[in-house]
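General statements about sequence and structure are easier to judge against a single worked case. When preparing material for the folding task, we compiled for one chain both its residues and its backbone structure tokens. The amino acid sequence and the backbone structure tokens for this protein are reproduced below:
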Amino acid sequence: VHPNVSQGCQGGCATCSDYNGCLSCKPRLFFVLERIGMKQIGVCLSSCPSGYYGTRYPDINKCAKCKADCDTCFTRNFCTKCKSGFYLYSGKCLEKCPDGLEASNHTMECTSMVHCETSEWSPWSPCMKKGKTCGFKRGNEVRVREIVQHPSTRGNPCPATSESRKCIVQRKRCQKEGKGKKNREEKRKKSNKDESKETRQESKGRAARRQNREQRENNNKTQPKKRKAPNKEQDLAPVDTAH
């Protein structure tokens, strides 16, 4: 063993040097060189730091640097996160996304465009003017639709969600508020009043007829019976005197 190489190292080193740090690592640990000023020091880590990717070999496990535009990577040619100003697409870091894709500043990735989608139009509303459906000849009617999918940044924007058009209606007067209900109430009261009047009149008529009938019966009971007039023809008949 070289005089500057020690086997009683700490921090996961299998062998180390006072000047260069770790020279080899214990099993399953990754060896990586860290720069401190103009000097490089070997360290042994359980996983590679950001900006590095790990490669396992039979004799040593090493951490290698990602490409300059990668923040993290799986291999040198496959980035998993890009540095600021670049957008991730299929493992690569691009300054501009391909056609048909758009850059997401939130995830720093190239994503598919999402276009606006709307529902079907609703039926046309009743013809109105100033919130009323009467008292005019020309008015407006409207229809609406809802947004069911909002677009992404570069997707097709949403169209208008309402439409209005002129309309013509048969002119008619507006009833005063509560007038129709008042008229129906008055008619109902009048009908009830007429029915009550007819009922009272019928009751009075029945009472009068009953009273007249009772009066006649009482009169018949109090008046004396008339005697029958004698039969003059019988009184004037000749008397048979022959014996």
